[in-house]
Every structure is written in C-alpha cells, then in structure tokens.
Amino acid sequence: MNNPQEPRLTPIDEWEDEATAMLDGVEYDTDLGLRMARDAIRVSNGELSDAEFHEKYHEAVLAEFGEDERPTKPEGFEDD
After folding, report:
1. 30: which residues sit within 8 A by CB, 6+ positions away?
2. Which helix or strand (DSSP H or E) is residue 35 part of?
3. CA-to-CA separations, 70 to 22, 35, 40, 59, 73, in angstroms, rounded
4. Residue 29 CB partners (closer than 8 Å, separation 6+)
5. 33 contacts 57 by C-beta, under 8 angstroms
6. Is 46 within 8 Å of 1 (Cβ atoms)?
7. Is 76 left (phi over 0), alpha (psi -120 to 50) or beta?
8. Number of CB atoms found within 10 A of residue 32's CB
9. pTM
10. With bands split at pLDDT 50, 70 and 90, how would you rate the model's confidence at 25?
11. Closest to 58 measured CA to CA, from 26, 28, 30, 80
C-alpha cells in the first residue's frame, strides 16, 4: 500500500493537545474525532484502506450522529 515516492504524513507532537483544546466544549465526542483523525493519517499513508476506515467507524458515527453520510462509504457496503 505504501508508495516510497509519496511523503508520509507525520503530525506534530502537539496536534492532539491543540485539537483537544479547540474542541473543548463542543457537543460531539472529541475522542471519536481524534481517533478518526489519527486513522485518517493512516489512510493517507497507505496503512489503512478507505473501506477499512469506513467500516471501523460506521457504528460509532451512527451512534454519535444518528446517520453515516460520510463520502467514504465503499461500494457494496451494507448498512445494518
């Protein structure tokens, strides 16, 4: 999955602290957002596929928002 010609994304050390501070007080699950952000970096780096990412967070997104309308839905993915 990894292409040696493509640069790898590496977040700065403080990104989680800064993201947590920015999201302090929002009504949504900050931890879910941070987990998804970490895995989005993994998708960008070729360590996780789009389909794996979508499936991994589908139930949590449904629980948090009542629907999963993310544009990452893989072809043939069946909602439960």
Report:
1. 19, 20, 23, 24
2. helix 30-44
3. 22, 16, 13, 12, 6
4. 60, 64
5. no
6. yes
7. left
8. 15
9. 0.75
10. confident
11. 80
Q: What is the pLDDT of residue 3?
A: 57
- The answer to whether the beta carbons of residues 36 and 48 sit under 8 Å apart is no
Q: Which tokens go with 38? A: 């970490």
Token code pair at residue 49: 């596929």
AA letter at 1: M
Q: At what angle do helices 15-23 and 30-44 cross, to 10 degrees?
A: 140
For the record, the structure tokens of 26 come out as 């929002």
Residue entry with tokens 């957002």: 33
Residue 53 banded pLDDT, cuts 50, 70, 90? very high
